[in-house]
Q: What sequence folds into this?
């Protein structure tokens, strides 16, 4: 079994959109911190939301450079059932590195909330003024993006 890079951006975006949760990693004062978050993808931007306060917000205000991971798939595979080192979890992952931008504009927050909900539902949603004002919205602008497929079948002349 192999690990292959996913080079096609369309396939990378499909992996991201197929996931329900991303893992948002940040660090300040050499202390790493990771949280699962809901998200939306818009071009080269990841949109995230949460309460507008707390440890995460304090961390990203001090250091806006972050990393986000999506992992799709959990099927166990092996080359030889008796050899532990031949086991893999068949999955696809995407990692993004980027910088946080905080969104304060009411109309842009409203638009971003709509994009977040579109990731999870085909319904149209409306958001009340208090909900928009009291939510924290931020974007991560993609500076680097990589995709990998783990546990892929090795391509040989007899199985290609």
A:
């Amino acid at each position: 079994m192999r690990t292959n890079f996913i080079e096609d951006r369309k396939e990378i975006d499909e992996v991201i959109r197929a996931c329900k949760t991303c893992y948002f990693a940040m660090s300040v004062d050499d202390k790493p911190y990771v949280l699962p978050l809901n998200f939306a993808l818009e071009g080269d931007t990841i949109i995230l939301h949460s309460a507008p306060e707390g440890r995460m917000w304090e961390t990203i205000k001090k250091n806006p450079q972050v990393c986000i991971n999506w992992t799709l798939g959990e099927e166990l595979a092996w080359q030889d059932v008796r050899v532990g080192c031949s086991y893999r979890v068949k999955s696809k992952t995407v990692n993004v590195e980027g910088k946080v931008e905080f969104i304060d504009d009411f109309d842009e927050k409203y638009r971003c909330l709509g994009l977040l909900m579109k990731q999870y539902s085909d319904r149209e949603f409306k958001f009340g003024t208090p909900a928009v004002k009291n939510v924290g919205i931020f974007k991560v602008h993609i500076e680097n993006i990589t995709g990998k497929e783990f546990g892929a079948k090795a391509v040989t002349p007899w199985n290609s």
